[in-house]
Amino acid sequence: MDAQKVDMFIMTNGKFFEGHHMNMIREKLLALDDSKWAMLSTTQFKDPTTILIVSILAGSLGIDRFMIGDTGLGIGKLLTCGGLGIWAIIDWFMIQKATREKNMQKIQQFLY
Questions:
Q1: Domain spans in the chain, listed from the N-terminal domain onward
Q2: Threshold 0.90, pTM exceeds
């Protein structure tokens, strides 16, 4: 794939991934053929900051976990009212990393 396209993708979507994954993502994208570019460029990634705000406002209902695709954990948080509030508070610190991991799983579908 063209280096300019890859660099533009990294600049626009870098906040959706962990920093230590960026070099690997760049290398894999450079080796990728152009036929997958249209699908990759239209893929929507979850914004970790938005998920954090949702977690702070409605984390005890599990909405943050539902948004990133962790349906089982979302149901667990919903039924326990966020683990009586404890689980909801813990997620304030962990939900951004979980969101970035889900984004990484999504982009790996294109890279491999």
A1: 3-111
A2: no
